[in-house]
Amino acid sequence: xxxxxxxxxxxxxxxxxxxxxxxxxxxxxxxxxxxxxxxxxxxxxxxxxxxxxxxxxxxxxxxxxxxxxxxxxxxxxxxxxxxxxxxxxxxxxxxxxxxxxxxxxxxxxxxxxxxxxx
Length: 118
Fold this sequence. Notes:
Elements: H1 2-6, H2 13-39, H3 46-82, H4 85-105, H5 110-117
C-alpha cells in the first residue's frame, strides 16, 4: 500500500483491488481462527461446535459494532477534551488490554484478542 500511495496509484484499479484484497484478508482471519478448533476434532459434537462458533461470531461482531459506533467515540471525545496526551495513550492501551482480557474470558486465544483489539 505504501508503494501505491507514494506513486499516487491508490485510486487506480490495481490500487483499489489491492486494498480490497488486504481488507478481505484482515476480515477473514477472525472466522478462520474460530473454525480451527472445530476442524481439529477437539469437539466430538460438530453441530454443538458450529452453534457455539456462530454465537461467538455474533457476540464478537455485536461487541465490536457497539463499541466502535457508540462507546469509543464518547470515551475518545472526553479524553481529547482534557488535552492530556498521556491520558489518551493510556486509555488506548487500557482498551486494548480490556479487549484481550475479554477474549480470554470467552475462551478465545490471547493472540486473537490482540488481533481484534488492533
